Fold these 4 entries.
Entry 1:
Amino acid sequence: MCFKRCTERIWIEIVQVTFSNKCFREGLLLGLGNPLLDISANVDHEFLQKYDLKPNNAILAEEKHKLLYEELMELYNADFIAGGSVQNTMRVAQWLLQKPKVATYMGCVGRDKYSKILEDKAAADGLNVRYQYTDKESTGTCAVLITGKERSLCANLAAANCFSPLHIEKPENKHLIDIAKYIYISGFFLTVSPESIQAVAKHAHENDKVFMMNLSAPFLCEFFQKPMMAAFPYVDIIFGNETEADTFAKANNLDATDRKQIALKISEMEKINDKRKRIVVITQGTEAVLLAKDGTITEYPVIKLPEEKVVDTNAAGDAFVGGFLAQLVQGKSIDTCIKCGIWTAAQIVQRSGCTYEGKPNFQS
């Protein structure tokens, strides 16, 4: 009797795995962004002041930040983690999917030891890495400065700035774009290659694919408004946090301060593909996630963790989108996508950097 029950259980598990693997395939999801090696360390507020940085903010490095990276490595116990917003999201999606190369990632790196570290780590996570290499710059880095539960990001894009449309025109890379059904970019990529964004956005529209973007940082909504709004009419799903949404509303004169109204107005902005309405997802830290869909706002409570369990909120947003996309490519409902995003973010913030271990056990 016991043998029979065990046999039945094994058979059910085999059927479940087989069915699950048929739900998604290699190359289904494509991400374009800025691959960066994160240099992460705990610092004090005096260190932030020294380099004119603010907690819970993200900026691009200027000349005054030149010595920041060396100081982090020499004087602080810094960790090196494969990073970059989209690369983080793709890695997290791969962790949840548990099937290699469902996600493809493109970005530009230098020909150096850091790009080798990035590629090895990403490939080990199951990601299909298709870097463009340049001899002009070294691989980009991002200082992740942790003060208590807050973090400040200062990115030196370096080689990431050198991405060009030539890379996506290569036959082997064009093939990967052709077979993808879901395409995701970060707002950070707007500073690098608006031409590439326009190319993949138009491809998505012409082939009825899902094109998604993240607002990524308040400064992008303000100072890179032109390339952002050029891409916006193609966006099917837009992600952002509370400060990004507020800044976007001001920059685009949406005449709204209530975040629910902001989400609805963003969903109603011009959209080229009229086969489906735009979906807007706004995260709000420890407050409810807002979903604007079909003219309606839905709120999703987040998982409240004890303060002592929260280690690093740096990758929470990237992890949320990774969880969302992992369900989306399997054809799951938006409701399930958001719940998985919330669950995934809660797992990642309990570790340092965008890291994870073991097999995910998300239950929809």
Entry 2:
Amino acid sequence: MPATRVKKPAGTAGGKTAKAAKVGSENQEEGPQVKRSSSPPHGAPKKRTAFIDITNAHKVQISLPGRKKDAAKNPVKKSAVPGPPRARGHLKNRSASAASEGREGPRPPLLAGQRRHTPAQFDMDSENADDCFLCPDYAKEIFDYLKQREERFVLRDYMPTQPGLTVEMRAVLVDWLVEVQENFELFHETLYLAVKVTDHYLSTVPVHRETLQLVGSTAMLIASKFEERSPPCVEDFLYICDDAYGREELISMEASILQTLAFDINIPIPYRFLRRYAKCVGAGMDTLTLARYYCEMSLMDMELVPERASLLASACLLMALLAKGLGGWSPVLQFHAGYQKADLAPVVRKLHGALAAPPDDKLRAIRNKYSHRVFFEVALLPLLEQEVLDEALT
């Protein structure tokens, strides 16, 4: 059903709009988050579905795993014979051993105050030695670990296995999720994680067109629980879907997604790598925001879904550095990202081609978002010319 966008408040003291005040604080460092109310949530988009031509979504009976009816037909009988008792310490040691080794293999622990060897010219964490919130002793270790975890979450083009979906429908869903992230004032990490969770679920489970928005909104709910200090409640997500789905359907979909992903939702996202790599070269907020715009636009492109998060973040930052005339891929970026310029060239060309394509008037959420002055109006800047890009990459 067609719907207009929510009108923003007229203004606040100091001459800035409420949206400018909110986005401005997030565009710098992550500030305190305002606790949201529920039903209807403050600042939420008006009731509507992501796919405005689906007007009978609420009439469709959706069969999802984990329903109470199925559980009633096949009750699980618990064994009456208890297992052998085990000492609490044994279970604790066993779980600690499994958690330390994980699927990536055992990792040698770091002693207090010890960092893995980093050459002095590439050491960007020692200046924050007195700030425990930045984890200077473990920052390099953390991002190396996230980069290793990427190998477990490499996706493929799953659209051939989704007969009821198209690339355009996925782009519409991502565009709608961007609006949800803006109006609920969620972290950008929540948006990226929600898209990742959606893609991983769709790569495994065939989904009907009428269920796609339910998958996306449930993925945003899961990501909010993982990332946010005060996540929206179930009723908030039912409201923004125009009550097209019931509470039971959303909870059943949440269980289905978590079971399909084996409850492993700590998926590396490009946004975290992007902030880290921008700090390596001391990029200004305008340059980082331009790279963030490129990175967020890549969420709608199906061709960029299989790319690793760290590689995609590196490509976005390289394009932003070239567009701002700040040089190319420097040795410090090669050290921390682990990529050479030749590794980035194919992804940069894909990204540039996606940004150079004529914009779809129906998919304007990201462009409108980054056309605001608190985002330095980076969406209005001219795209890097193809000749300049080819010369920089060769």
Entry 3:
Amino acid sequence: MRDQVVVITGASAGTGRAAARAFAARGARIALLARGRAGLDAAAADVEELGGTALPLTVDVADPDQVESAAERVERELGPIRVWVNNAFTGVFAPFEEITPAEYRRVTEVTYLGTVHGTRAALARMRPRNAGVIVQVGSALAYRGIPLQAPYCGAKHAIEGFTESLRAELLHDRSGVKVTMVQLPALNTPQFGWVRSRLPRHPQPVPPIYQPEVAARAIVHAAEHPRRRERWVGGSTIATLLAEKVVPGLLDRYLGRTGYDSQQTGERRDGNPAGNLWEPCDADRDHGAHGGFDDRAKRRSLLLAAQTWRFR
């Protein structure tokens, strides 16, 4: 990975920030795409400190022209793009009826179409060289929707379908470009203080919770060994999918009973009710990679270790 050019969207915080650090430790040249200037500057400082080269770019991935312009600048200043990581997303915590059409559209434009725009910009440069890796950052919620996150779940389902279609096309063309997907569990990122919420209590990830560095290891491994179709990071996601297959509808009933409380702490909601839907939350202050659940988050995943041990 040394000296290879990597693009990461949503790179200023959370999983993207952790992935930037992981690639930087391998000496990569990294383009950091996000909206928040303070977060981007801090992420760039992290990359440089760890031995990488950073190019922070203020980009809203919902705008295909901004994504395309960023890709042009990356190749002009850093060189040919070897890895593109589509990680940027946003969401709204609320029952479906309380989410406006404009909010639903915005989540879809950032989370799903942002991935499409990033993939298009990457492919336009990778296809002529017949080389490169695109890593889609997915979620267990790409397979199993949960209450109170309908726009996000819908977008992640869409990314899964889009990626499957694209992968088949690349195989048909015998392309050297690889596309893979990393399915993430609940992570301890700033997301739960940033995402717009209408819940009465503070949002939280559904346990078990993992640190974003676990996700970052999976993303780097996917970039280095892209032949695997996808990687699952959290063990509970596999159990969830098996339960859905064995007893259809069981999880619908279970989540109907437990899905509201399990996504909220005991504390009343405060802070930033507007969230980061249209404006970044790290424009003036860096929030780093971690959220407020360090005391509960796991630093390792046995499932990820089982999928990657033979490559060591």
Entry 4:
Amino acid sequence: MRHNKKFNHLGRTKAHREAMLSNMATSLILHKRISTTLAKAKALRVYVEPIITRSKEDTSHSRRMVFAELQSKEAVKELFGEVSTKVANRPGGYTRILRTGYRLGDNAEMCIIELVDYNENMLGAEAKSTATRRTRRSRKSTATAKTEENQAEA
């Protein structure tokens, strides 16, 4: 029985799973978006979001803690330099998972996981969608429409 065992083991040993998630987190930080399976993306989101939260405070202790997870100097430098400034005022939810369909070979559900603040297309769409308001009513109010109808009858 697997009572109280909530995370996905992904069919790997502990060492293999940790190494894979570390490598995927490094790639996500360096490239800002990666394509993977949905199960791996969900596991990666749980793994990488606390690391990004830790990068908001630029101290030597937090750098060492992040380096212990990622094992990549380039990723730590990128994370504490560029990424942490973009996510400084965001209270969480640094990643977005976009489903892309199914893989041809084994029908695994594929997706793209990306850092939220780095997709200019989505940022432009959010700004555009909040700027326009649409209503089902006509432009004229019902009171002015009735007075115009009364004048036309007379």
